[in-house]
Amino acid sequence: MSMLTTEYKNNYSDLINQDPRFINFMALQKQGEDTNEFEFFPSNLSVEKINELRKRIKPAYWDNRKLTSIDDTNLDSKTVSFLWDIKPAEQVENPDYVGCFITFHGCSSSVFFKPSIYEVLSQLPKKIENMHHDHKLYFITDIVNTGHLYNWHQVAVTQIFV
After folding, report:
1. What is the 3-state secondary structure (H, E, C) of the chain?
2. Per-residue pLDDT of the chain (162 residues; tens, 9 = 90+)
3. pTM, whole model, 2 decimals?
4. N or C, fewer C-beta in 10 Å, the chain?
């Protein structure tokens, strides 16, 4: 489903290792602290804020090398992965790459990658949130660390397109 290559993943290992959330988590673990309650992303984003962001920032995937948005109208933004049971919405004409950022996603097993819209949007950098207000933004989230669980979280790279 994704066009993320091994080379691409390897290029982001430094970015992950420099992420302040990851550094803080690893430091706590090294000190023997209990990290069971460690939060990689804010859990206090309001429903109103999520709904506001969802109007212009949409999940997407590559379909035959064409960026295609996902119909997320009936998805629970917190509990349902946008990658499961994908329903295509529209193809994005001439998408431009804006940038990427590291995201953490809750999981119960390393074999299931189930990012939610809430997880992505709650970690959206303000710089990206505040840009392109007159255009829709699209995001693709690809897992980076298969098998490495950090407090039952998986690490991913989320790419933004306009």
Report:
1. CCCCCHHHHHHCHHHHHCCHHHHHHHHHHHCCCCCCCCCCCCCCCCHHHHHHHHHHEEEEEEECCEEEEECCCCCCCCCCECCCCCCEEEECCCCCEEEEEEEEEECCCCCCCCCEHHHHHHCCCHHHHCCCCCCCEEEEEEECCCCCCCCCEEEEEEEEEC
2. 333 333 444 566 677 777 888 788 778 888 888 777 777 777 778 889 888 999 999 999 999 889 999 999 999 988 899 998 899 999 999 999 988 888 888 887 777 788 999 999 989 888 888 877 778 999 999 887 655 566 678 888 899 999
3. 0.82
4. N
